[in-house]
Design goal:
α4 crosses α7 and α8 runs antiparallel to α9. The radius of gyration is 34 Å and the shape is globular. It has twelve helices and no strands. Helices cover 68% and strands 0% of the residues. It has 336 residues and is mainly α. The longest helix is centred in the last third of the chain and has 33 residues.
Length: 336
């Protein structure tokens, strides 16, 4: 079925029959019923040629997958799903503890009840010394951990990028990571005496190998394509480390930081248990040792409980959100 075409002049004049054939506009593409045309771009989507349609559908599907946003759950449901299981576990432990106390699995002076431990914590709180013990250990742990992060990061980068250094001290780092932190305490006392330097030396020796090994593992998992792309755009040397190497190794590095904090906290408690002097202040490890000296089991268990609470609190408040943010930003953690 032929269609009649009209032309307009260059100045927008009315169409005329005498217009030359060369000035006529090219015929618009026509198609069968149901043939779709493109939108604002004006590109025809010919159904007979299925390749553009299939590619467009594939791109739309991929975009939909990438842009899917999980519906935000009510805060009560989120709180219940995250807080309820740990609360139930704590209740079960307290019930079993109370049953062991009731049936005298150990004599009461060796195994106090949860109420006795809570009363001991209350006494320390009313004395106004409880927060001082926690702050002394927490400040030591934070300072030692920050110093460990600096040293461990530098050491990990050197080991990861220099083959000769890796061959020389790589196995030593793994061995130091498996060495119990308390083994360093006698040597540190001989080197530095009963001082804060001894405590910080034990913390560094316990945490630095873990952080360095975590960073080495993260660098080993980087795709070579990223490193080649970085060199192509000129990111070499310090710029390559800052903009390519460290961001690409971030998941493994975060895991190393988490493990480094755990080792530094354990090392700190081991050092405080042994290094005890009046001018050093009293941390949680020294509080635990004082309870042992007085044979006061509620005191001992309350100190252990405080050490556990601080360690878990730092993990939940600092490292767990940081790890979730890094993994989610890379598509490695998807909300269900």
């Amino acid at each position: 079925m032929a269609s009649t075409e009209t032309t307009t002049g260059p100045a927008g004049d009315a169409p005329g029959e005498d217009a030359p054939a060369s000035a006529a506009a090219p015929p618009a593409p026509t198609g069968t019923a149901g043939a779709g045309t493109s939108g604002a771009a004006g590109r025809p989507a010919a159904p007979g040629n299925g390749e553009p349609d299939s590619l467009a559908g594939l791109e739309a599907g991929l975009d939909a997958l990438e842009s899917t946003v999980a519906a935000r759950q009510p805060w009560l449901r989120t709180l219940a799903s995250k807080a309820l299981p740990p609360a139930i576990a704590v209740v079960i432990v307290l019930v079993l503890w109370q049953l062991a106390y009731h049936f005298e699995v150990k004599p009461h002076y060796l195994l106090p009840s949860p109420v006795d431990v809570a009363r001991s914590l209350q006494e320390k709180w009313l004395e106004g010394t409880l927060l001082g013990y926690v702050w002394t250990s927490l400040s030591r742990g934070a300072l030692g951990f920050l110093a460990s992060v600096v040293l461990g990061t530098v050491l990990g980068l050197i080991v990861a990028r220099v083959k000769a250094v890796r061959a020389a001290i790589g196995p030593i780092l793994s061995g130091l990571q498996s060495l119990p932190s308390v083994a360093w305490v006698p040597a540190a006392i001989i080197w530095f005496g009963l001082s804060d330097a001894t405590i910080y030396a034990v913390v560094l020796l316990g945490a630095v190998p873990s952080i360095a090994n975590g960073l080495v593992a993260g660098v080993d998992q980087i795709s070579p394509l990223y490193l080649r792309a970085g060199r192509t755009i000129g990111a070499t040397g310090a710029a390559g480390v800052r903009h390519v190497l460290l961001p690409a190794a971030l998941p493994g590095y975060i895991a190393g930081l988490k493990q480094g904090w755990a080792f530094s906290w354990r090392s700190l408690m081991a050092a405080e248990l042994i290094v005890n002097a009046p001018d050093l202040g009293t941390g949680l490890g020294q509080l635990l040792e004082q309870g042992r000296e007085f044979q006061d089991m509620p005191w001992v268990l309350s100190a252990i409980l405080l050490i556990l609470i601080v360690g878990i609190g730092i993990e939940l408040l600092v490292f767990a959100p940081l790890e979730r943010r890094v993994l989610r930003s890379r598509g490695l953690l998807v909300k269900s």
